[in-house]
Write a structure and sequence with these properties.
By secondary structure, this protein is of the alpha/beta class. It contains 13 helices and 13 strands. Bound molecules: glutamine.
């Protein structure tokens, strides 16, 4: 018989060698292991709105239990189109421009698989939500990173250098991934910044893929602007959003991509063969969710602002430097005061010895050294959860710089 010994990598794709498992989701497992307060993965620990839970129960009871149309239940697509018009003034045809997916995570990877050829470049602002790196690898694209720089004064905004951004665009650029409000920095891109990005997209014939999952979670009078609403962008933008963050249902896995019809056709093909469809009864509940009154969104933003203002002072008291978020539900911090060589050692110490789980900053950077003195905390938690974390974090005050 031939030698059947199997090399460890024999059955594996080269692609999977090029990224690791999600650090964010690993931190949740560690939080469970050590009984730590989980301020790592961004999911709420409070209930979803009663109306939408009821709508989900009713859909199951009414036997909406078989496949929906592969690109999304009509009720939900109509509701998405209505909301995009109402909130951002963007006209969308629900028949030809929307693909409902299993979460915005699937919407992003389906989009990249639908638009990228091997060797295409995709521009990503860094720090970035960790999925975008593996998404680019899986779709054969080459990620090109452009830095978002932290402000000298933590109350100011993260910003990018216009020349650095321009230098990232050229012939092979297929797309730019935007995420506003931004995870992990809390930055909300301004109209002027979006116009600059628009001008470059038009000049270099580049697609904007914009993840707007935190659209409704904004603070301090900040305004969220969809790049698709800017002149010249509707025909070159894929807008990604979902139920998870706005309606506190991250486990439902319902998201969507809104794009011009020809791009939508391609996304729908990939989506169909990847997952066939998102959960049918939860899509009906999604249609009900998108019909909630404007006061729902106001109180969502207000309650998140109160949570931010609860956690940030506790972190500051424990000697974290906190970059004030204007949107989304994370606070990026600088951990210089604690004298740890890197963020991994620090978050390990935090979860094991202090009893709080956070995400090491390096998981948001291509080169881990750039995030070695940063750590992200999520504040999408009940006030008593935040207070318990705050109490535990005060133990760090006794920690002296080594
Ligand atoms: N967006 C969430 C975060 O950044 C997690 C999303 C996920 O784990 N799929 O923590």
């Amino acid at each position: 018989m031939a030698d059947v010994s199997i090399q460890p990598k024999h059955f594996l794709s080269d692609k999977v060698e090029r990224f690791t498992e999600s650090v964010i989701r690993e931190m949740t497992r560690q939080a469970m292991l050590y009984g730590a307060v989980n301020l790592a993965q961004g999911f709420p620990d409070f209930p979803a709105p009663a109306e939408i839970k009821r709508a989900a129960q009713e859909a199951v009871a009414a036997d909406v239990n078989q496949y929906a149309i592969t690109w999304g239940a009509k009720n939900l697509r109509n509701a998405i189109a209505r909301q995009m018009k109402e909130w951002q003034g963007i006209p969308v045809d629900p028949e030809t421009q929307i693909t409902v997916c299993c979460g915005s995570t699937e919407a992003m990877i389906s989009t990249l698989l639908a638009v990228c050829n091997k060797g295409d470049e995709v521009i990503i602002f860094e720090p970035f939500y960790e999925n975008y790196g593996p998404d680019a690898v899986l779709s054969g694209a080459r990620p090109i990173f452009v830095k978002l720089r932290p402000p000298a004064n933590t109350d100011d905004e993260w910003s990018f250098d216009e020349r650095e951004l321009r230098a990232a665009f050229h012939n092979h650029t297929k797309a730019i991934i935007l995420n506003t409000p931004n995870n992990p920095t809390g930055k909300v891109f301004t109209r002027a910044e979006l116009e600059l990005i628009r001008d470059l997209c038009v000049e270099f014939n580049v697609l904007a893929i914009t993840d707007e999952i935190y659209e409704h979670i904004i603070y301090d009078g900040t305004q969220h602007i969809s790049i698709a609403s800017l002149a010249g962008m509707a025909e070159r933008t894929v807008t990604i959003n979902g139920l998870s963050k706005t309606y506190s249902v991250t486990g439902w896995r319902v998201g969507w991509a809104v794009a011009p019809p020809n791009v939508t056709n391609a996304i729908r093909k990939v989506h169909d063969f990847l997952t066939v469809g998102a959960p049918a009864p939860l899509q009906e509940a999604g249609a009900a969710a998108l019909g909630l009154l404007p006061s729902y969104y106001q109180s969502l933003a207000t309650s998140y602002c109160a949570r931010r203002d609860r956690l940030v002072p506790a972190l500051a008291e424990a000697r974290f430097r906190c970059f004030r978020p204007r949107g989304a539900y994370y606070v990026m911090t600088d951990i210089c005061a604690f004298g740890f060589t890197d963020d991994l050692a620090f978050t390990k110490y935090l979860v094991k010895e202090i009893g709080v789980a956070a995400v090491p900053g390096s998981s948001f950077y291509h080169d881990p050294r750039n995030g070695a003195q940063q750590v992200r905390f999520a504040f999408c938690k009940r006030v008593d959860t935040l207070d318990e974390a705050g109490k535990r974090l005060q133990k760090l005050r006794g920690l002296r710089k080594k």
